[in-house]
Amino acid sequence: MIYTLTPNPAVDVVVSCDELTPNRVTRTRDASYSPNGKGLNVSFVLEHYGVPSTILGFFGGFTGTWIAEEAARTCPVKPVWIDGITRVNMFVNAGEDEYTMPNAGAPVERPQQQEMLDLIAGLEDLDTLVVSGSLSPLMEPHYYEELTDICHKKGAEIVLDMSHKSLAELVKKEPLLIKPNDEEIEAIFGVDTKSDSDIVSALHHIHELGAKNILCTLGGRGAFFLDDRHIYRASAAKIKILSTACAGDATLAAFLSIWHDDRDAVVPALTRAMATGADVASSAGLGDLARVDELANQIEVKVVE
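and the corresponding structure tokens:
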């Protein structure tokens, strides 16, 4: 069983307006509200592709209750309840511009952190834990190490989708898969990603540090994937971007929906991943993913090494 952990979930509110003008009332439209957080999004997309998973997360207040109840309509949820109110993030589409305004989130005290660790340690059907997103306030980067160590003790794998600089040390613990983008690779590992050859060199460097497999997304330029045999280059579909929110999570989930159980199926996994991410980015949310097959026809995947 795949479990997804969202340390800092949110209610995402997406609205549109013609323009944002300082010190004036801005009327918005097309408001949408969704239970969100990177791990939740991974579970939702896995479910879309027929892959079962269970959601783990820290939830608090009326927003946390709403997220857990809404998410449970799609996937099983095992919550750890905290004091405080789960955050609300705002995404504003103003004409051609996109404004992303995430909140810091509710603090998670150490007793609740330990409750989650104990919960994971007791999961008898855990095969892979996908840890996605930022930590809540009061949670130290060492928590990622604690999660990784518990998985290893249980003989389970861990997938990391995070932007914290501690990823440079965590890869030494040999996670199954990491999913940085090019900007995160530069910031975390201190290497260039300006050209394809730079990215290839960076992937080799990170692989030598310990990461077993690396999915590096490049936004509108596609993605790279490295395993222990090859490096693959995937193109991107041509779309009009409405919102990049959730697109990276959908890309990871779509990739895992094939590759997790068939490590040789890299090409179809990358094709589905790129098409799914493009569908989400061009529809301003997870939506029904109705255009994935159409967009997949635009995707080219080739082995570059």
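(Above: one complete record from the training split.) The chain has a mean pLDDT of 94.
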